[in-house]
Amino acid sequence: MNFVCEVYGRAARRCAGGRQAAARWGRVAVLLLLLPSLSACQSMRSEQAPSTSAVAIARQAGESAYAAGEWAAAEPHYSTLVAAIPQDAELWFRLGNIYARMDRPDAAIAAYREALVRDSDLAKAWFNMGVVQLRQAANSFLKMKVHSPAGDPVAAQGAATYDAIMAILGQQDRPSADPALPGDVDELPAP
User: Fold this and answer.
1) Which residue among 13, 67, 78, 150 is least packed, with the fewest CB closer than 10 Å?
2) How many beta carbons lie within 10 A of that of residue 98, not counting itself?
3) Above 90 in pLDDT, residue 175?
4) DSSP 147
């Protein structure tokens, strides 16, 4: 505190209540000393964000893997893209499609919701999210069928519901099939 008083002594004496003023000037001095380190933290944050060229590379690699149906290869690229360009609904939509193809329905639904937060009129995201949710429902009714006694009236109702969902999905008698999600073949325009 003596150093602060020596450096800022004149200003402190001019103000009423010398000790209080010295304490105030001391706080100002500390803030001034911390300011350069705070700006260094900000520059470190901006260095961690992907560069424009890294985003372009991720976009090219992600689109290529997506078009080839290489979902595991496309996923990290689209994750990078949504982190770098979070406002792009189409990127979130494609990430949802990737998760759906990789049998990660909860992640797919979350990505579709992110797309819809950004563009609530994106009908294909609503549609694909509904398809994934129907698949989850069908899976629940299928498990119910396996684990419920045959004579249970609720089991019969569950089996009928399962059949109805599978008919909606166009997958009668194919519970293990992984058909294409309608609406997920839309490609991003070429740059």
Assistant:
1) 150
2) 27
3) no
4) H
Separation between Cα atoms, residue 78 and residue 69, nearest integer Å: 13
Identify whether the C-beta of residue 109 lies closer than 8 Å to the C-beta of residue 129. Answer: yes
pLDDT in tens, 22-33: 556 556 555 455
Tokens of 190: 């070429």
If DSSP codes are grouped into helix, strand and coil, which group holds residue 72?
Answer: helix
Q: Give the other-Cβ count within 10 Å of 7's Cβ.
A: 14
- Find tokens 């070429």 and name the residue: 190
Six-digit token pair at 80? Answer: 């990078």
Which pLDDT tens digit goes with each residue over 55-113?
Answer: 899 999 999 999 999 999 999 999 999 999 999 999 999 999 999 999 999 999 999 99
